[in-house]
Design brief:
By secondary structure, the protein is mainly alpha-helical. The chain contains 18 helices and six strands. Keywords: Lipid biosynthesis, Lipid metabolism, Membrane, Nucleotidyltransferase, Phospholipid biosynthesis, Phospholipid metabolism, Transferase, Transmembrane, Transmembrane helix.
Length: 464
Amino acid sequence: MSENLRKRSGVAGDAENVQEKTDGADTHSDKENIHSNLRDSEIDSEDDKNGRKGSIDLSSNIPTGTNKAPFMLEMLLQDLPDKWRNWVVRGIFSFLMLTFFLVVIYGGPLALMITTLVVQVKCFQEIINIGYSVYRIHGLPWFRSLSWYFLITSNYFFYGESLVEYFGVVINRTDFLRGIVTYHRFISFCLYCGGFVLFVLSLVKKYYMKQFSLFAWTHVALLIVVTQSYLIIKNIFEGLIWFIVPVSMIICNDIMAYVFGFFFGKTPLIKLSPKKTWEGFIGGGFSTVIFGFMMSYIMCQYPYFVCPIEYSEALGRMTMECEPSILFRPTMYELPGFLCGLLNTFGLPTTVSLYPFMLHSLSLSLFSSVIGPFGGFFASGFKRAFKIKDFGDVIPGHGGIMDRFDCQFLMATFVNVYISSFIQTDSPQKLLTQVLYLKPEQQLQLFHMLKDTLENRNILVPSV
C-alpha cells in the first residue's frame, strides 16, 4: 500500500516537474517573443531589420576629391612624395579657380548671380546626398523629388524678394507682373504648403523616423545654402566691392593659412582639423588684413565696383553708374597723438588720406581671419561625424563645392549684417518702389505731404 503511494507520488512528481519545465519553456518563449516584438518596434525600416543599423560610415559611399587628380597629372607627379604631390595638385586647381573667379567678375553682376545659383544648387546636392546615404531610404523616389521641390520653392521666395526690391520700378509697369509681385509671399507660402502636404502623404510605415529626420535635414540644408546665397545676391546689388573683397579675403586666408601651415606649421590648432596649425592661422590672418587693405584701396577708385545696381529712369535700364558715396571718396584722417610727436620730429605729415571703406575692410578682414575659419571647422566636424573625407569630388585636390564654400556662406551673412547695421540707408530707388505699391489716392496724399514739408523748410519755392 505504502509502496503504491510512493509510486503514485513519484509519478505525480515527475508530471509536476515536466509541467514546470513546460511552463518554464513557454514563459521563456513568451519573453523572447516580447523582446523580439520590442526590437521590431524599435526598428524603423527593413534596412535596420537586416542588421545594417550601427555606426555611420559613409567613406565608401561618398566620392572624395582630395586625393583625386586627372590621369595625365597623376602620371607627371607619380615620382613626387604624397605631401608634395597634393601640394602641386591643390596649387594648380586653386589657380584655375581663381582664373574662373576673375572671368566671372569680368562678366558682371548677371554672371555673378548665375554662378551663385549654380554653386548653391551643387552645395545643396552634396549635403542632401549625404542625408540620403545616412538614412538609407530606398524605394521612395517621391520623397527625393520633394527635397528638390523645397529647394525650388525657397529660391522662388528669396529671389523673388530680391527682384521686388531692386526691380520694383520696372515690374510695376507690367500689370501681369504687378499682380505676381503683390501676392508674392502668399504664392510662396501656398507653394510651401503644397510640399508640406505632399510630405505627409508620402509617409510610409516603418520609415517614419527616417523620413522626418530627412525632412529636417532638407530644411537645415536650405537654411545653410539658400538663405546664404540670397544674402550674397543682396551684397552684390549693394556694389560689387561688397562681394569681391569679402570673397577674396576668404580665398586669401585659406591659401595663406595653407602655405604658412605647410612650411612652418608645428603647433596643432584644433582637434577637428589636425592639419590646421597656429602658425597657419596667424600667418593667414596677417596676410588677409594686408591683402584686404590693399585690394580695397585699388577697387575704391573704380565706380564699376562701388556703385550699387539700380534701375535708371533716364536710361530705361539697370545701371552701375553713380556718384560714389562718401565711403569711396578720399578723406583726410588725423593720426593718433602718440604718432604725431614722432612724425613732427622728422618733419613728416600727421594726416593721411584714405578711403573710408578701407577702414571698414579691416573689420571684414578680421572676421574672415578669426571667425571665418570656424565655418571650415564646422564642416570638418560634420564630415568626421559621418566618416567622410570630402563632400564630393568635383575639384581635384580640394573635394566638393561645399568644401570650398563652407567659409564663404558665413562671411556672406556677416557682410550683409554689417551693411545693414553700419552702412546702409534707404535709397530713393527703394523708397520709390514702395511708393508705387500704394493706391493712387495714397500716392497723391504722400506727394502733397512731401511738397508741404519741402516748402516749409524753404527747400522748394511755394507755387503761386
